[in-house]
Request: fold
Amino acid sequence: MKFEEQLNYYVSMAESMLGALLTQADAPALLQESMEYSLLSGGKRLRPVLCMATCELLGGSAPDAVKAACAIEMVHAYSLIHDDLPAMDNDDFRRGLPSNHKKFGEANAILAGDGLLTMAFFVLSQVENEGRKVVQTVARGAMDMVCGQSIDINESDNPGVMFELMAKKTGALIRAAVLAGAYCSGSQETGKWIGPLTVFAEKFGLLFQITDDILDSRQDEKEEGMSFVSLYGLQPARDEAKRVADAAVQALAEVPGDVSFLTELTQRMLTRTR
Ligand code: GRG
Reply:
């Protein structure tokens, strides 16, 4: 299968399940609408893609990982809603649309985030093979992300914490997506490949954050906080992104199986425009 076809296959599978899974919330109409607004309004679906692709790499099939993939996307959507709140980053727009609190008001946005996080774990409770490992992996990722946000809010004037901040705020959920996908494969050999997959995921997360900083630095109106670009400059950020992408691909090559999709996904991060 060509890269684009495989990418579309994962994205469509996640998108066809997300809405249905969210109806399990059985929420009042306004809460349902505000959760759907943030969960179903575009987004690259990168974490679900990583989750399903890793599952397939270890011999599972994408449907084996789709619930874990959707749960992780719910955690991601919650984090974006709360990150945009006035008490956090105070962003009026997300994905070119009014942010959740601008559309539904702050109280409803807080509840939409709470609801999405809770529904993520409701969905994860339905994962069968290695379900406990999957729940643990996603909980670790979600908690580390909250820790990263705390470091960002309270220590953002300390350049010494930048890598820890990136690893936690952005990297942790990406690592959770890869490892949850590995556990969902049901392979007897998963344990053998958790080491290289963890290195791959951590490098991928760092690559994603550095390229996010590079993209942000091109938006003049965006206030720049501590980032790889603001600390080291644009060209060093590009050079570092290349080094980190190479390290991710190298770690992935240790895993047997067809790594071509995840390798190309990694390389495409270097030239991404969104
Ligand atoms: C509020 C607990 C809490 C955590 C917030 C995710 C996050 C932590 C902050 C978002 C700030 C930010 C822009 C971080 C950079 C990396 C990142 C997570 C970008 C957004 O992810 P994408 O590009 O989003 O995957 P899409 O829109 O494609 O889903």
